[in-house]
Amino acid sequence: MPQFWANSPITPSQFTLGLVGMVFALLMFTALAPDVILVAAVVMLMLVGILSPNEALAGMSNEGMITVAVLFIVGAAVRETGGVEFIASRLFGRPKTPTTAVARMMLPTMGLSAFMNNTPLVAMLIPAVGDWARKLRMPVSRFMIPLSYAAILGGTCTLIGTSTNLVVQGLLIKEQQAAIRSKDLQEIARLQAENGARGLSMFSITWVGLPSAILGGLYIVVFSRWLLRDRRPAVSTSDDPREYTVEMQVAPEGPLIGKSIEAAGLRHLPGVFLAEIDRGGTIIPAVSPQEVLQANDRLQFVGIVESVVDLQRIRGLLPATNQVHKLNAPRPTRCLIEAVVSNSCPLVGKTIRDGRFRNTYNAVVVAVARNGERLQQKIGDIELHAGDTLLVEAHPSFYDQQRNSRDFFLVSRIDDTNPPRHDKAWIAIGLLLGLVTLTTFNVMSVLMAAMLCAGLMLFFKCLSVRNARRSVDWEVLLAIAASFALGAALEKTGAARNIAEGMIQLAGGSPWVALAVIYAMTLIATELITNNAAAALACPFAIATARDLNVSAMPFVIAVAMAASAGFATPIGYQTNLMVYGPGGYKFSDYVKIGIPLDILVGVITVLLAPFVWPF
User: Fold this and answer.
1) How far is CA 1 from CA 12, 207, 492, in A?
2) Which domain holds residue 265?
3) Residue 233 lies in a domain
4) Of the candidates 82, 332, 430, 510, which lies 20 to 30 Å from 116 by C-alpha distance?
C-alpha cells in the first residue's frame, strides 16, 4: 500500500469499512444503479492504493460470476423455445379455490427455479401467471408475491438455482486457489475436506434449502389468503383502448386439433375474445366452449395488443395469413411492431392484399385496430385508412427503416415478441436436464456444464446468437464482480477480521450465537441492498469468524448463502420481489406483513440445521 497510509489519521481498514458503509447508504437511499455504486467504490479503492488493478478486476474472471452469465443464456433459450410456458400450462391446471391455486402455482415454480436462475424464470412466468389468474377470475395480487417467494425458495435448493449460491461458490473456490498459490498443504487439505475439490456440489445446500422451501411454501399457501390483500395493478393491460382484429389458424397436425375451445384454453382469455370461426368458408359465430377445433380452422379474435402477443405464443396457433411464411427473415429473428398509418401512406384506400404490403415493406400485417371498431373482414381484405394501427411481424430492421418514414405517423417495437421456437422446446428441456445430471454426478464443474449446455443451445438454434448476447444482464454481472473486489479489500485490510472479532465478543465465543448473528447481519444487508452484494460482502466476515472460533466455516458459508437469498420483507430484498411489485399492484406494507414471518422461519431452519449437516 502507498506510504501515505503511514501518516494518515485513519487506517486502510477504517477507510474500507467507511466506504462499505457509504455503499450501503447509497444503495438504500438513492436511485443510483447498484452496479454504478459498487464500481465507483472499487475505483476509489484503486485510487487510494488499497487494491491493485489486478485485484480490482479479479472478480471479472471469477468462476461464479461467469457461471451466472452463461446461465442467463441457458434460461433465455428455455424461454424462447416456449419450454417454461409448456411446462407451466400443464402443471398449473384450473384449481377452484385461491388456496389450491397458490399451491398449484408455487410447486412447479419451485421445481423449475431449483434448476434455472430464478430472475429470468420469474420474468418468463409473470405474464403466464397473470393470464392464468385472470382466466381463473382471481386477483393477480394473490399470486405475484407467492410467485417471487416460490422462485426464491426453490432457488435455495440447488447450487445453480440462484446467482447468490454461485457467488458464494466463487468465493470458496477463490479461497482454495489462494491456498494453492501459497502452497499451504495443510490449509488445502482442510478446505477440500470442508468444501470438496470443487467447492459446493449441486445439492450441498439442498439439506437446508429443501426443508426451508417445504415449510416456507406451506406457510405461504396457508397464510397468504389472509396476509395478501386484493389489489389492482397500477397499469392494467385491460385499460388499453385499442382493440385489434387478429386472425389465427389452427396448425395442421398441431396439438389443438380435436380439443374443445375450453380444453384448448381459448375461452376466457384475458383482454381478448374469440369472435368467430371460419371453417372452410362456413362461419361459426357465438362460438360454444364445447366447439371442437379442426385443422386449418381460422379463428378471429378481438383484443388488446398484449393479448394478441400472447396468442402468437400459443402452441398450435399460427397467423392465418400465408404471407408470414414468405418473408425473407427467418421467423425466430422477427418481432412484432406497431405502426400507425399516415394520410400520406400510398396504401391508404387499398386493401392489405391489393396494396402488396409484404412486398412494399418486407413485413406482414397480423392485426389491425381502428378506433375501437370491430373489423369483420379477413386481414388481407381490410382496406387501410389513415390512423389505422397495424401490428406487423417483421425483422427488427423494419423499425429503423420506417420510424422516420412519411408512410407512418408512429412506429414502435414491442419487446420480447420473437415467435417461440416450439419445435426446439424438447431439445432445450433435454439440454437443461443434461446440465443438471452432469453437475449432480460431478462429471464436470457447473461452469463447464453450463458452457457446454449454452453452446449446444446455440448449435441446435434454440436461441440466436443476437438474443444470447441480449440475454446477459451486464448490470448484474458488474455488480457481482465489483462486490468480489470489495470483499477482497475487506480481507486485505483486515477489516473482515476486525468485524469477526467483534462478533465473537458479541456471541460470547459460542459458534451457535455467532452463526445466528452472521445470518441476521447478512439478512439485514439483503433486505436493504442487493442479494449478490450482501453475499459477497458478508462471506469474508463469516469465514473470518469461523477461523477465529477455530470451527468449520461451512455452516457460516451456508448461512450467508441462505440469508442472502431469503430476503422476503422488502421489495428490494431480492430482484424478483421488485419485478412483481408493479404487476401485482402491491404496496411496501404487503411485503412486510407476509415477508417478516417468512424471514424468521427460514432463519431458524438454517441456524438449526446447518451445524448438524456440517458440524462445527
Assistant:
1) 9, 43, 10
2) 243-303+316-413
3) no
4) 332
